[in-house]
Amino acid sequence: MDINSINIMKKIHALGEIHCIDYIGVAGLEAYQEEIAEIGGALPAGYPRAIAIGIALPSAIVDRLGGDVTYEDVFTYQEHAYDIINNRLDLFASVTASSLQRAGYYVLPVPAAERIDSDRVCASISHKITARLAGFGWIGKNCLLITPEHGPRVRWTTVLTDAPLEENRDIKDVRCGGCKKCAESCPAQALTGRNYAPGEPRESRLDVAKCEAYLHTRKETLGLAVCGQCLCACPYGQKKNR
Ligand code: SF4
Ligand code: SF4
Fold it and tell me: Of 81, 76, 22, 7, which Cα lies nearest the Cα of 54?
C-alpha cells in the first residue's frame, strides 16, 4: 500500500464523520471473483477491491415494524429508513468515488438500491457480501448482514476500485447460534432458518418469491411494499441488547 492510498482513506474517513457515515471499510474481492461474476457479470468482477459503506437505520423506526403496523409506520420506514438513507449512501459513494478518481484510481460506485435481476431480486454486486468481506458482520439466517452493534439495522452500498487500499483480513464468523427469531417472525414463512455458508445459494435460506408475494399483499393492504419483520426481530441491534 502506498502513502497516497493511506492518505486517501484518511480523507474518506474524515468526510464520513462529516456525513455521519457509520461504517467505512475495505473488502478484498480477488478470492471471490467467481461468486461476484455469477451475480453481476464481468463488470464488477474486474475490480480487486471494494469500499463498503453503511449507515445505521433509526432504531425507533425499525421497532415499529414488529406486530400490527399502520400506514404511518411503513411510510416512515420507506421515507427515513430506505429512500433517504439510500440517497445519502449514493451521495457519499459519489464523494468517495471522486476522491479516488482525483488520486488517479479507477472507480465504480454501485447504486445503493440497484436491482439488475427482478426474478432473483439481486444487484450487480451484493452490498452485504462486500460489508462481510470488509469485516463488519456476518450473513444471518434472514439473509441480511448482521453487525454486532446494530444487527441488521444498517443499509449498505459499495464503491468498486483498483486503488491499492489496505484490505480487511478479519472476516467475522456467523454468530446466529440456535436463534431462529427472524424465521419465526416471518409472516410468509419465507425463511428456512438455515445458517449462512459461503458458496451455498441464497435459495437455501430464503424463498424470494414468498417474500415478494407477501410484500405485494402489504402494498395492497397498507399502500406500501414494506415488511421488515425479520429485521425488527433480530436480537442483535435491539436497544435492550446494546
Ligand atoms: S421481509 Fe417479511 S416476508 Fe420477507 S423474509 Fe422478511 S419477514 Fe419474511
Ligand atoms: S434473528 Fe437470530 S437467527 Fe435471525 S439473523 Fe438475527 S441472530 Fe441470526
Answer: 22
